């Protein structure tokens, strides 16, 4: 049996406490060697909360020679500096999504990983949902025929309160709701269909991180019949999360939870719902655990992780293109024509 | 919602410099999209409040939270505001301080405020009012604004009614003829701005409404176009709604025998069995009871758990009492005092307010977009 993988958790905030640390404790292959955070009291308190005694360090350099890999779960604008420090010390990294808050910073991380021949994995954990894998397979097999249009949405009234409060600052986030919420689907969209041929964004930022965003995508096809898609994200309105595909076979829906199932409403019988399920009878595993073990295996086997730095770079490229092609959503509703800007977005 | 609307309104006004103070970043998205600088404070921490209020001449308290935040937090806020010499403290209270249902004389603020349990929303708000009045008497001018349900864009109240209409759980009393007190969020903002110069040592309590004779039917009729496919709201008789409402907030009385039965009920024993020692004791007791025969065991079970109860599938069981119940309030609160004392004048009518809300809702949900043909599959 191979030795336990010695892991450093960099960042003792909300996502580490709620997801990465429990996943590492659940894994039989991983030992939490260190928790790294400049706020060492917070890191220490986190360790005590889970009854573990890892090394507590303010900086990853202090533990570099004792770890086999690092999970970087810090505010977006700090990813580059921390990842470069790890990779320069020969430490593979699993970086929380998004890889960085700009394409240039992301590229610097990917290049450093390739120079050092070390794994750069990115935390798009929803790729590990069974439904994502199954839908990708079905789309590749053209199970539903051609996809004509797609639509994705996810909205909450507030929520997700990182301890550092970095989401109050557009520069720290690298954007707004599109980055915080939308990036998970943008990654899956790229995974399903590749990079789009045309993109467009409408959002309600007037200087800070946008709270509402509507993104449009166009995929040109050889037969001249383009596939169009839209995605809507909100931090002010509750929108039931999910993906809808208009296909030759009918309407396909997939909810945005780990146990959501792919449902087909056949074109000829829209009153029916066919649930499309894989064969596995096993209960689904936690995606953070699957992601972490994929990272560990990638490091040990010298293979690419499921979500590579290069793939995540495409997300950053897409995000930059969307923000570069944006129009303003007006949010004044009394006797004004704000609705027009939203309806046409 | 009120705080964000106030900040948005004031950001366009160069005569007032606004400092939004938030507790956490989670609910601040609407505010921060403008790039306005926000300050973070914990109402349970006086030092953070003092830092947040630095340089402020007036405070508008729109905070909400658990009982501790509402009481200890407000006490801290009042103390700090008083210490730094704030010239006006506006507190957002609620018409609920007049009871639920309110007395018939509570059309005017001069009506008596009945005693309510502190655990109730009205009781909590009433307690807060007394604290603000105390601080005003001690020297910090104050003003207490009492809005009813708040309408307009981003309205939590209207969002909840829509959800209830969509699920068929809203019941209309007497064909919707009951009084519905509403204030548009931007009318409330106007009242707050007017009130900045109206704070006094008496900290008067003022109703702030749209000043219209709105009924529940008008509200429901204005919202139904946003609920395609929703069933017609069911009708309910006054007696049934009163009964449902009484059942919604049952008065739990201490009952020693009931508590003893609860202690030996299967739910509690299942929890206790997680401890190995208690599991062994429970096993021994169950064995002893079983040894006395099945008939005795059944008798014991019946005595402890009571007979099996199957609820009747009555349509009224699905009524959302929290949302439908306020139709029983029956009093139209008047904003005459607010007009006289602070010069309040509602800027938006009920019709304007609902039109703005509908435009906001359609836009935010995407009902007015070409993608609704697909998006609708994600909605209940």
Protein described:
The complex is a heterodimer of chains A (345) and B (380). Chain A is built from 10 helices and 15 strands. Chain A is of the alpha/beta class. Chain A folds into 2 domains: 144 residues, Rossmann fold (3-Layer(aba) Sandwich), CATH 3.40.50; 183 residues, Dihydrodipicolinate Reductase, domain 2, CATH 3.30.360. In chain A, helix 1 packs across helix 8 and helix 7 packs across helix 9. The radius of gyration of chain A is 21 Å and the shape is globular. Chain A starts with a strand and ends with a helix. The longest helix of chain B is centred in the N-terminal third of the chain and has 17 residues. In chain B, helix 1 packs across helix 7 and helix 4 packs parallel to helix 5. Chain B has 17 helices and 10 strands. Helix content of chain B is 45%, strand content 9%. Chains A and B meet through strand 7, strand 10, strand 11, strand 12 and helix 10 of A and helix 2, helix 16 and helix 17 of B.
**Uncertain runs of chain A:** none
Q: Tell me the overall shape of chain A.
A: globular
CATH fold call of the largest domain in chain B: Rossmann fold
* Fraction of residues in helix of chain A: 25-40%
Tell me the major beta sheet of chain A. Answer: 9 strands, mixed
Rounded mean pLDDT score of chain B = 92
Helix content of chain B: 40-55%
State which percent range the strand residues of chain A make up.
15-25%
What is the radius of gyration of chain A?
21 Å
The CATH architecture name of the largest domain in chain A reads 2-Layer Sandwich
What is the number of domains of chain A?
2
Order of helices and strands of chain B: HEHEHEHEHEEHEEHEHEHHHHHHHHH
Q: What about the largest sheet of chain B?
A: 4 strands, parallel
Distance between the termini of chain A: 55 Å
Mean pLDDT rating of chain A? 94
The CATH H-level superfamily of the largest domain in chain B is NAD(P)-binding Rossmann-like Domain
| Number of helical stretches of at least 4 residues of chain B | 17
């Amino acid at each position: 049996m191979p030795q336990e993988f010695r892991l450093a958790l960099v960042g003792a905030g909300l996502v580490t406490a709620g997801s990465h640390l429990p996943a590492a404790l659940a894994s039989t292959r991983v030992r939490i060697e260190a928790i790294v955070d400049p706020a060492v009291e917070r890191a220490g308190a986190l360790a005590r909360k889970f009854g573990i005694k890892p090394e507590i360090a303010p900086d990853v350099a202090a533990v570099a020679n004792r770890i086999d890999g690092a999970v970087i779960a810090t505010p977006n604008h700090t990813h580059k500096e921390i990842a470069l420090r790890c990779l320069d010390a020969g430490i593979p990294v699993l970086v929380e999504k998004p890889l960085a808050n700009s394409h240039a910073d992301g590229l610097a991380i990917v290049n450093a990983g390739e120079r050092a021949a070390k794994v750069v994995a990115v935390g798009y954990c929803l790729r590990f949902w069974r439904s994502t894998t199954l839908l990708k397979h079905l789309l590749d097999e053209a199970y539903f025929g051609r996809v004509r249009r797609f639509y994705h949405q996810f909205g909450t009234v507030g929520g997700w309160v990182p301890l550092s409060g970095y989401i109050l600052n557009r520069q720290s986030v690298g954007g707004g709701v599109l980055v915080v919420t939308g990036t998970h689907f943008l990654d899956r969209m790229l995974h399903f269909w590749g990079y789009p041929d045309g993109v467009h964004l409408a959002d309600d930022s007037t200087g800070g991180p946008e709270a509402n965003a509507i993104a449009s995508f166009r995929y040109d096809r050889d037969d001249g019949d383009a596939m169009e898609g839209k995605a809507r994200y909100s931090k002010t309105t509750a929108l039931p999360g999910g993906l809808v595909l208009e296909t030759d076979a009918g309407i396909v829906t997939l909810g945005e939870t780990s146990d959501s199932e792919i449902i087909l409403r056949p074109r000829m019988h829209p009153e029916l719902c066919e649930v499309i399920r894989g064969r596995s009878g096993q209960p689904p595993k936690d995606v953070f655990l699957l992601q972490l073990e994929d990272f560990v295996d990638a490091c040990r086997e010298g293979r690419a992780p499921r979500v590579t730095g290069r793939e995540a770079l495409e997300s950053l490229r897409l995000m930059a293109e969307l923000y570069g092609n944006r129009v303003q959503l007006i949010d004044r509703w009394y006797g004004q024509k704000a609705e027009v800007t939203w309806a046409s977005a | 919602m009120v705080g964000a609307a106030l900040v948005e309104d004031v950001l366009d006004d160069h005569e007032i410099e606004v400092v939004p103070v938030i507790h956490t970043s989670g609910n601040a998205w609407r505010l921060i999209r403008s790039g306005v600088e926000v300050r973070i404070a914990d109402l349970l921490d006086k030092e953070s409040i003092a830092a947040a209020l630095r340089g402020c001449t007036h405070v508008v308290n729109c905070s909400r939270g658990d009982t501790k935040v509402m009481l200890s937090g407000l006490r801290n806020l009042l103390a700090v505001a008083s210490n730094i010499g704030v010239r006006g403290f506006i507190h957002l209270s609620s018409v609920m301080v007049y009871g639920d249902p309110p007395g018939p004389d509570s059309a005017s603020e001069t009506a008596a405020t009945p005693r309510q349990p502190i655990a109730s929303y009205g009781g909590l708000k009433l307690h807060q009012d007394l604290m603000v009045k105390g601080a005003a008497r001690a020297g910090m001018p104050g003003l207490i604004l009492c809005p009813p349900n708040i309408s307009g864009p981003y309205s939590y109240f209207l969002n909840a009614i829509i959800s209830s209409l969509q699920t068929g759980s809203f019941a209309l009393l007497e064909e919707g003829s009951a009084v519905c007190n509403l204030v548009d969020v931007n009318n409330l903002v106007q009242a707050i701005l007017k009130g900045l110069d109206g704070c006094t040592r008496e900290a008067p309590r003022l109703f702030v409404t749209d000043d219209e004779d709105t009924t529940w039917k008008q509200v429901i009729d204005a919202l139904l176009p946003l609920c395609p496919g929703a069933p017609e709201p069911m009708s309910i008789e006054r007696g049934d709604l009163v009964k449902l409402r009484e059942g919604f907030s049952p008065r739990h009385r201490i009952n020693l025998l009931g508590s003893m039965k609860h202690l030996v009920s299967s739910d509690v024993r299942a929890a206790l069995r997680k401890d190995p020692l208690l599991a062994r004791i429970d096993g021994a007791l169950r064995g002893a009871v079983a040894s006395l025969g099945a008939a005795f065991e059944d008798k014991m079970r019946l005595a402890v758990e009571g007979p099996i109860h199957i609820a009747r599938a009555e349509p009224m069981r699905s009524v959302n009492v929290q949302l439908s119940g306020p139709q029983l309030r029956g009093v139209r609160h008047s904003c005459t005092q607010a007009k006289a004392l602070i010069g309040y004048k509602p800027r938006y009518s009920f019709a304007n307010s609902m039109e703005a809300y509908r435009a906001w809702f359609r836009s935010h949900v995407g009902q007015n977009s070409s993608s609704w043909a697909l998006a609708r599959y994600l909605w209940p």
